[in-house]
Specification:
This protein is mainly α and 136 residues long. The chain has one domain. It is built from five helices and two strands; from the N terminus they run αββαααα. A two-stranded antiparallel ribbon has the order 1-2. The longest helix has 26 residues.
Length: 136
């Protein structure tokens, strides 16, 4: 039987693998095009609800935005560093995404702690792999 430390190590390894799969799935779902400007270069996956604040949304594909460098980290209205300007940009350019974010951000605040089991993580892995493999 594994010790608590060994179980934690296994889960930590799975988290890293799932983070990578999630990023690839986000990019595949958006066909590698920025959801803000439509540019197809230098794409980065971004968590709409930060993974540190919404653990249950960490690997939710709907919580992923495919962003170009400028809209992810490089511009004044970038997701990282743009703050409210980025939020306003999403509201203006993609109201559908803004509605999802507001709904799930509020829901996330009311939900309790989320601790997925190893079986949950394996199911998430299979879902993400399915999205990546379905890419045209």
């Amino acid at each position: 039987m594994k010790t608590r430390a060994q179980r934690k190590h296994t889960l930590t390894k799975k988290h890293g693998t799932l983070d990578q799969l999630w990023g690839r799935a986000v990019l595949a779902k958006a066909h590698g095009i920025c959801v803000i400007c439509g540019r197809p270069n230098s794409m980065n996956p971004h968590h709409f609800i930060l993974k540190t604040r919404g653990k249950r949304y960490r690997w939710d594909i709907e919580n992923g935005l495919c962003l170009c460098f400028m809209h992810h980290t490089g511009g004044l209205d970038a997701a990282h560093g743009g703050g409210l300007r980025f939020t306003d940009l999403i509201r203006e350019k993609r109201p559908d995404l803004s509605e999802w974010y507001e709904k799930h951000r509020r829901l996330n605040e009311t939900l309790g702690k989320y601790s997925p089991t190893l079986e949950d993580l394996e199911e998430i892995r299979d879902q993400l792999k399915g999205i990546i493999e379905a890419k045209p």
